[in-house]
Amino acid sequence: MRAVPRQPRVSSRSHPATGTVRDRTGARRRRSAAETRNAILEAAQRRLLAGGPEAIRLQEIAADAGISHPAILHHFGSREGLVEAMVMRGVTNLQTQFLEGWPSAKEPDIEGVFDRFYEVASRRGIARMLAWLILSGKSNRTMTPNVFKPAAERMHAGRIRRAQQQGRRLPALEETLFAATFLFILVLGDSLFGPSVRRAVGLGSGADTTRRFRRWLSKTVELLETRRAHS
After folding, report:
1. Who's near 221: CB < 8 A, 6+ residues apart?
2. Which residue segments constitute the domains of the chain, with CATH numbers given?
3. Is 40 within 8 Å of 82 (Cβ atoms)?
4. Sorting pLDDT into bands at 50, 70 and 90, what band is 15?
């Protein structure tokens, strides 16, 4: 008589949408929904950094996070929903870094702003994911109206203070919104196409060339800002 393989026992306390983790004592406990969601996003972020958007595969992410494939669908609905959540998380981190770093000791700190933007947009791969959403017409839930307005308002407050200190005309809010748009487009564009364009024009695409270009870019933008302030 052929033996029937024993099926692994599934605890009635487990939940496919949360999974379990060990606490500091080593005891197993069920993860909360927020913890599971965060674990999925962290696993997806690691996959993104290692292999780009093509590496966002739900089954592999589920295995990395120690949950089941249906758990990701439970929390995000689909791969597109997970991508949107990743971009929203990146956008939130981007704005948080901006608000924490502006104003800095140097005002306007264009180079510091670029560094913080590049950290999230380029090094964490959010620019590629956001571009994919925009080009596929699925960015409505991420690039919502006024999503970056708090950062733009912080930037505007810094420009107002600087103008008052120097006895100049106060900048209009629209001018700052234009400047914020310009900075965002610069960072997003360079994060997506910078290495390829620099290589194509003969500069090369290595890390040292990238640093020199971005340093030049920040000085150029700062010079434009200074000229505008004294015009």
Report:
1. 110, 182, 183, 186
2. 28-77 (1.10.10), 78-229 (1.10.357)
3. yes
4. very low
User: Which of 180, 124, 186, 123 is CA-nearest to residue 157?
Assistant: 180
Task: Tell me if the bond preceding 145 is cis, omega within 30° of 0.
Answer: no
C-alpha 188, offset from chain centre: 11
Query: What is the Cα 110 distance to its own chain's centre?
Result: 19
Instruction: Provide CB contacts within 8 A for 140, sequence distance 6+.
Output: none
Cβ neighbours for 179, distance < 8 A, ≥ 6 positions apart: 155, 225
pLDDT at 90: 79
Q: Whole-angstrom Cα distance, residue 84 to residue 140?
A: 10
* 100: its two tokens: 């924490």
Distance CA 77, CA 90 (A): 19
Q: pLDDT tens digits for 80-104?
A: 888 888 888 877 877 776 676 655 5
Sequence letter at residue 84: E
